[in-house]
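Subject: Re: docking follow-up (calcium ion)

Dear J.,

Thanks for your patience while I sorted out the input files. As discussed at Tuesday's group meeting, I've set up the holo structure prediction with calcium ion included as the bound ligand rather than trying to dock it afterwards. The sequence and the ligand SMILES I used are pasted below, so you can double-check that they match what you have on your end before we go further.
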Amino acid sequence: MNRHKTLVLRNGEMAAFALTIAVMLVAPGCTQTAPTTNSAPSPTSTAAAKSAVRAGVFDSATGTFFLQTGDGPEANSFTYGGVNSVAIVGDWNGDGFESISIYDPANGAFFLTDLNVSAPAKDTFTYGETNRKPITGDWDGDGKDSVGIYDPKSATFFLTNRNASAPAVETFVFGAPDMVPVAGDWNGDGKDSIGIYDPSTRTFFLSDLNVSSPAAHTFSFGSAGSVPIVGDWDGDGRDSVGAYDPAKGVFLLRNALSDGPPDREIQFGAPGMTPLVGRWAAH
Ligand SMILES: [Ca+2]
Ligand SMILES: [Ca+2]
Ligand SMILES: [Ca+2]
Ligand SMILES: [Ca+2]
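The structure tokens for the complex came back this morning:
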């Protein structure tokens, strides 16, 4: 057990080191290769390769994204957006791969791109009031993600199926105010739906429908200060949640929508960054 702990910490240091190199020495848009270690692969690396869901982090202080290119600390790094942008992830064009994008809370504006490089935005639009929390998902099951926003004061979600300034197609209240919104395909029907995470009790409340209704899945996962993340870690077609520890730069992933320990752990990024998850589109 102690030995495992040591290995984990050393990988974390290596990831932080790789990020430092990427920031300081290399032009945006290039794949970074960090020094490799000779440590044995973790028992979970096979599952990671199968699902091909990778980690990423966003450094909002510099507007720099770091997207994991394998199971280790190697990262594709590039800048996109500005300081204080909120990073989002989606498959806007339905090609099966996710790209990063940003939300500017001060203007309620989205800047979408299909490429994981430094490049101008493909779609720019405002949606809803300013200073909302953005979410993304394939609400109508057409294979393309679109955006939504959550108003923490009123616990109201506003979802659209078009990435444009347009009235919301779904507006509903879910849960209590001041929660953290999440979205995913919890039941594997091809449509994403919302949920909320209560940081004070580390409890997820997930719905299979985008309407006001009781939660379909309620369970606790994570630790004090952890940030909720969503992804299909085991490739079974259903999303589940994880918890990112910003103090350590660790992603803890669980496959079942229930209380229990993590099934997988990913060390990626330096502490204090925003966690991201996706099947990253090649740049
Ligand atoms: Ca895509
Ligand atoms: Ca859609
Ligand atoms: Ca679903
Ligand atoms: Ca899954």
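A couple of observations from a first look. The CA atoms of residues 108 and 137 lie 18 Å apart. The pocket of calcium ion (ligand 3) is lined by residues 185-187, 189, 191, 193, 208 (CB under 6 Å).

Let me know if you'd like me to rerun anything.

Best regards,
T.
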